[in-house]
């Protein structure tokens, strides 16, 4: 803790001293086509300062229903928050913006925390009584401030933290490239969402670098460590984290066999089943892995969105299903027994900007409420697992 604090202060000084908060892409990236470097406004999204203010406000006006804590710090010393609501014995962990250019989820999550904390309707009271909801909006705040995917961290900083990695090749998810949007060359970082390991006590070993996307990550970033620690605390307290929801964005797609633009995609499958030959390497997790619950949770979200009627809210597709991504939070936590749901909202912020912001925010809220209500009422366990496979695929 003490060490983190020190890093936090140094980080803060560094940020101010070098003016790193100015949009780095506009000043240091040369592009052949000037149109390429025009950046859509992101002023409608939430900054880290605004997150801090909003969470404080929500806590203060929630009559004690919402408790906000600092769960940890980003590599540059920004607070990573968790907001806890409810006192039920079913646990739901929801996070947003592990990729800092995927911002709608944070807006939706703040609305959800506020509503469940404040509203005294029977439905909201039931959520508070039946569930313990832990919301972690904006878990990668350094990336948020740069409107980019990766965090802000050098391989040298990793080696400083884990001296056993001296002389080892950097992990495969270390970004050092430059393009029209980002300059990772002068300001490198990691894809935090490939830094998870289903062994939640894993300690980095030189033999596990640089690895690849179908191998587990290492918990080398403070952001993944913070999320992992929150997850483990919940396991200690409740046994299992029943549900894990991760809010992301994707490119722009249409629903398979149609011209309908996808509003968002869902998924509950991130690794091959541990009981199959492809999933052999995950055999030790076979007893707790619960893909049926993941599928039921996805169906709950899908059904809630379909109930919005014939509208963009109905244009929901299933994300590709043949994934093997144990280094994602979803992959690692699903192997630990959580029912897992991925939201992939249309459009990356750096190119899509804040188009349809209200509609997309509402769609995410609707899907998440579908999950929360179905878990609070136990209806999720009655849903037909096979309905999951009827969700139309994304056309790619
Ligand atoms: Zn993402």
Features:
Aminopeptidase, single chain, disordered N terminus, protease, binds zinc ion, zinc ion binding, eight-stranded mixed sheet, alpha/beta, 12 helices, globular, 396 residues, two-stranded antiparallel sheet
The shape is: globular
CATH fold annotation: Aminopeptidase
Q: Report the portion of residues in β strands.
A: 5-15%
Count structural domains: 1
Number of strands: 12
Report the top-level CATH class: Alpha Beta
CATH superfamily: Zn peptidases
Strand order of the largest sheet: 1-2-4-3-7-11-9-10
Number of helices: 12
Q: How far apart are the first and last residues' alpha carbons, in Å?
A: 45 Å
- State the CATH architecture: 3-Layer(aba) Sandwich
Mean pLDDT: 90
Using only C-alpha atoms, the radius of gyration works out to 20 Å
Described by its quaternary structure, the protein is: single chain
How does the helix and strand content classify structurally? Answer: alpha/beta
Outline the biggest β-sheet: 8 strands, mixed
Domain Peptidase M14: 44-396
Cofactor: Zn(2+)
Protein name: Peptidase M14
Keywords: Hydrolase, Metalloprotease, Protease, Zinc
Question: What can be said about this structure in brief?
Answer:
34% of the residues lie in helices and 15% in strands.
Structure description:
By secondary structure, the protein is an alpha/beta fold. The chain has a single domain, classed as Zn peptidases (Aminopeptidase). Helices cover 34% and strands 15% of the residues. Strands 1-2-4-3-7-11-9-10 form an eight-stranded mixed sheet, with helices on both faces. A two-stranded antiparallel ribbon has the order 5-6. A two-stranded antiparallel sheet has the order 8-12. α9 (291-306) packs across α12. Residues 1-35 have low confidence and may be disordered. Zinc ion (ZN) binds at residues 99, 102, 248.
């Amino acid at each position: 803790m003490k060490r983190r604090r020190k890093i936090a202060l140094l980080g803060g000084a560094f940020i101010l001293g070098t003016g790193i908060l100015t949009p780095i892409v506009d000043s240091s990236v040369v592009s052949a086509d000037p149109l390429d470097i025009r950046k859509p406004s992101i002023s409608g999204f939430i900054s880290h300062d605004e997150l801090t203010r909003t969470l404080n406000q929500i806590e203060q006006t929630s009559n004690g229903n919402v408790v906000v804590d600092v769960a940890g710090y980003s590599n540059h010393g920004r607070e990573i928050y968790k907001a806890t609501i409810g006192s039920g014995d079913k646990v739901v962990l929801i996070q947003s913006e592990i990729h800092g250019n995927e911002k709608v989820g944070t807006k939706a999550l703040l609305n959800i925390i506020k509503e469940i904390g404040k509203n005294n309707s029977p439905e909201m009271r039931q959520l508070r009584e039946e569930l313990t909801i832990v919301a972690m909006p904006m878990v990668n705040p350094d990336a948020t401030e740069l409107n980019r995917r990766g965090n802000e961290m050098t391989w040298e900083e990793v080696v400083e933290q884990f001296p056993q990695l001296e002389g080892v090749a950097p992990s495969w998810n270390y970004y050092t490239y430059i393009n029209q949007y980002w300059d990772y060359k002068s300001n490198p970082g990691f894809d935090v969402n490939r830094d998870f390991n289903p062994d939640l006590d894993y300690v980095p070993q030189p033999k596990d670098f640089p690895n690849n996307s179908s191998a587990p990550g290492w918990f080398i970033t403070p952001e993944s460590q913070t999320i992992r620690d929150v997850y483990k605390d919940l396991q200690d307290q409740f046994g299992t984290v029943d549900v894990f929801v991760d809010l992301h964005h994707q490119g722009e797609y249409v629903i398979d066999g149609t011209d309908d633009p996808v509003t968002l995609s869902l998924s509950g499958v991130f690794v091959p089943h541990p009981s199959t030959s492809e999933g052999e390497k995950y055999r030790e997790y076979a007893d707790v892995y619960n893909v049926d619950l993941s599928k039921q949770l996805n169906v709950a979200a899908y059904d809630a969105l379909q109930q919005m009627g014939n509208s963009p809210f109905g244009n929901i597709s299933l994300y590709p299903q043949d994934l093997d991504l144990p280094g994602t939070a979803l992959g690692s936590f699903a192997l630990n027994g959580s029912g897992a749901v991925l939201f992939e909202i249309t459009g990356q912020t750096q190119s899509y900007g804040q188009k349809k912001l209200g509609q997309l925010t509402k769609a995410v809220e609707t899907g998440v409420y579908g999950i929360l209500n179905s878990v609070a009422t136990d209806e999720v366990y009655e849903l037909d697992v096979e309905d999951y496979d009827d969700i139309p695929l994304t056309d790619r």
